[in-house]
Amino acid sequence: MSGTSSSVAVIVLAAGAGTRMKSKTPKILHTIAGRSLLGHSLHGTSGIDPEHLVVVVSHERERVSAAVADLATALGREIAIAEQDEPRGTGDAARVGLTALPDDFDGTVIVTAADVPLLDADTLRGLIETHTADGGAAVTLTSFIADDPTGYGRIIRADDDSVRAIVEHKDATPEQRAITEVNAGVYAVDATALRDGLSKLSTDNVQGEFYLTDIVEIARDAGQAVRGFTVADPVLVAGCNDRAQLADLGAELNRRIIRRHQVDGVTVVDPATTWIDVDVTIEPDVRIEPGTQLHGRTHIAADAVVGPDTTLTDVTIGEGAHVIRTHGSEAVIGGDASVGPFAYLRPGTVLGVAGKIGTFVETKNSTIGDGSKVPHLTYVGDATIGEHTNIGASSVFVNYDGVNKHRTVIGDHCRTGSDNMFVAPVSIGDGAYTGAGTVVRQNVPPGALAVSAGTQRVIEDWVVRKRPDTAAAQAAIEALGNASAARDKDPGPA
User: Fold this and answer.
1) Among the options 376, 388, 406, 413, which is catalytic?
2) What is the pLDDT of residues 439-465, one digit of tens each?
3) What is the pTM of this model?
């Protein structure tokens, strides 16, 4: 037997329709913690650095194959695709996967499923060590003790406690259904034994399919060793069949991710309302407030505070920054900067060290320099703002002419007034000021003051004459009367 070979291949079964998800999206492309189920599976299996990695596809094969190609690029390795023309059970899917391996491959073949997202490299290494120890086995299966074994294949043990067979739930007798040790659906199989076993499968069962589980009994009948690898933590081999299980596995994975960050020195005030994707990185002494979601490849440097009620995707946060009640994506926030509350950072936002993006501010494709502030009620789009500049409240960077986007450039140490419109393309030089209510349509030289408002006009009694029946008119009449009475009482110097 060649089970002691150091060569390992992995076959991931991803051909099922996943009808219980009741979704247009293939089951294995549904996501938890920022990755698809397929993505989790391929990250886990790639962790053991197998010589060959094969994904068997059938249902929605174009979409699934495209996802596999993207994952191969992300993982930096080759992943072969084997197409199953007609789903005829796990045994037939494994047979299709085996055709993607070299004919002379004689090592260990791991067979697993794409809907087992928490299966990790350490568990797979344990399975391989059990399989190859003491001369190796023909087949080693994983099992766990289920609180409710309904639907699982039952593990049938021999008198010597070795594995005799796996009986699917639909084919099990009442006595067998009482067994709580169940099949986890992950196998380590000697390549020669796998080829032999798959060639002997039949469809003589309730579902009329080729069961991969039958290779256990075939190996036993041939006098070959069959071992069991019992997983103490059932979640690591838990599968996903419907939306409820998807949510349960997502919550459990999130709990484990948060726990890992807490152990590494991150304060998570309320784990129950905090969600962190698997690829998020957080340095020690970060504080995560309640109601925060961190997605994608968000990175948070030490001593930063994020939240409450903040959602960030692919955002980089510098050391000591504060981000409060903010929604942001594909943005960079400098160290000691302040963002929020109620800020919206769109892709391309870069905020410098000790900068500020304040309340009800939206930014997009803009760089805001060190120490510069956009405190409140402002839209900054397609702009470059220098260092130590202050943008007045209620300003708008008018970047779109209906056809093209244009850029505004504001220099260092500028002070722009409230309610300004910057009609791009336009630039404001270093040290320049603008007055309140200014519409900036022309470039402003360094150190200049730009104003666009005309002389203020006051039209006496306009409201009384033009809106005579309104509450405003009545208030004005009363105020004018009071003012007149006051003058009559104290007419002032003669």
Assistant:
1) 376
2) 999 999 999 999 998 887 888 998 999
3) 0.90
